[in-house]
Design goal:
The chain has 334 residues and is an alpha/beta fold. Helix content is 22%, strand content 29%. It is elongated, with a radius of gyration of 22 Å.
Length: 334
């Protein structure tokens, strides 16, 4: 079991910055995210999008903001459980909690912080015959461990950044990569699209455009996919794995059952310290709601700073919190 002071659900920008604010108060953090990488929407949906309202960082690219946040919290050595979704929350006799994920990872903590953005991201599933039957038997909606595809034949489907990036990355790992896209051009970054076309021209990947996977076949495990062209032609190719990458949709998920105040799919909080109606559980960032709420990253940063000051009393009940400026004390690493 992992033991920490604060368990942060969500490793997006607000969750990452919360680690910094906790670290200043000598509180250790462990973050859980259903996505296999940190950064939340910034990493998964718009890594190349500029963000203009981060103070002191005009027009910063989303993935650069994530890198900077990771650099800022490095000294506080946070722990991460990625690619797993929080499933349950069990309160202990001393008021602490055990948070358990869908893969049975347990985190014992004194405080829980929900920084889950718009909620737990669930993969958008394409309309493919027998798709759900082959889940866990060759169908993957995320690439959690690239090495599992080493020397295997894989088919990816999609036209966004994730499909392009993974096609490029896995071309050096898998024995064969096929990328299927229903259009002629890609929605992802132009540089990535150009790289995919180069790999296809060199024969390192197979690129099938104006087509979509329409059915899966196999006997217990996935063996082949059927691909339907826009011209109604039908092709069957052998594969070990099928990875449809059509984006993610946010869901509140299991936290909806934690007896928290919820209003319009967001957690209601006390703006004094962004605490929820359940003791030792806070909600910050886009997941919370209150009068005047603005869903901005910078507002989430503010909420993280305020709530950590409040959480201090649960981590160090015998100590009196004394506010100190970083310009006076600097950053003292763990």
């Amino acid at each position: 079991m992992i033991t920490t002071d604060i368990c942060i659900i969500g490793a997006g920008p607000v969750g990452l910055f919360a680690v910094f604010e906790a670290g200043l108060l000598k509180m250790r953090c462990h973050l859980i995210d259903a996505l296999p990488l940190v950064g939340g929407q910034l990493s998964e949906i718009y890594p190349q999008k500029p963000i203009y309202d981060i103070p002191g960082a005009p027009g910063i690219i989303a993935e650069d903001l994530v890198k900077n946040l990771l650099l800022q919290i490095e000294e506080f050595k946070p722990g991460f459980t990625l690619g797993e979704r929080v499933e349950s929350l069990d309160k202990q006799d001393d008021g602490s909690y055990i948070v358990t994920t869908n893969e049975a990872t347990e985190i014992h903590c004194k405080v829980v912080v929900i920084a889950a953005g718009l909620g737990s991201f669930e993969p958008r599933k394409p309309a493919v015959e027998r798709l759900e039957y082959f889940e866990g038997k060759g169908v993957h909606y995320m690439v959690k461990r690239p090495e599992q595809f080493r020397n295997k034949k894989i088919v990816l489907a999609g036209g966004g950044d994730s499909a392009l990036d993974w096609a490029i990355f896995l071309s050096d790992i898998a024995s064969r990569v096929t990328l299927v896209h229903r259009g002629e051009t890609f929605r992802g970054a132009p540089d990535s699209a150009a790289k995919v076309f180069e790999l296809a021209e060199s024969g390192k990947i197979d690129l099938i455009l104006q087509s979509q996977v329409n059915s899966l076949n196999g006997n217990g495990v996935l063996k082949e996919v059927s691909i339907l062209g826009n011209d109604k032609s039908l092709t069957t190719i052998e594969t070990d794995d099928f990875i449809p990458l059509f984006g993610l949709s946010p869901k509140l998920g299991p936290i909806a059952d934690w007896n928290l105040g919820v209003e319009k799919s967001a957690v209601t909080v006390n703006t004094l310290d962004y605490s929820t109606n359940v003791e030792r559980i806070y909600a910050i960032g886009d997941i919370n709601t209150y009068p005047g709420k603005l869903k901005l990253i910078l507002c989430g940063f503010h909420e993280a700073a305020i709530m950590m000051q409040s959480a201090f009393k649960y981590v160090y009940p015998e100590q009196k919190l004394s506010f100190k400026y970083t310009t006076v004390n600097g950053i003292n690493a763990f």
